[in-house]
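ok posting inputs for the manganese (II) ion job
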Amino acid sequence: MHTVLYHRADLDGHCSGAIAALSLRQRQLDFKLHGIDYGDPIPWDLIDGHDLIVLDWSFQPWELFSEVLRRAKSLVWIDHHKTALAGLTEAMAGLLFTPSAKSMFAFAILVLVLLFRPQGIMGKRAAP
Ligand SMILES: [Mn+2]
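and the output
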């Protein structure tokens, strides 16, 4: 079963949750839709063994991501907030390097992205 966790505190969270629900319904997949906000308890019963889709929201602290990856069957995570990218790169760097190098690593990633992919890391929009 799929679980869709969407940010319940803003409109883009609600809309992305609705789009995911429509898509899963069209494909006749079983799912639970669950709104979440920062400070809410993590709904582990909806994560354990489920195909998890997280929209417009991030697990914080970042160490929670490794536990989610361990417990969920799969994870799709879509979040447009710049703190999401910085936090994730910091968490990854924390696994690879000394903790003191974490913020330096996130800064280096941001500079590299801006240098080589100023248009963003996703594909270009096709011409209409
Ligand atoms: Mn948002």
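notes: The two ends are 36 Å apart (CA to CA). The mean pLDDT is 84.
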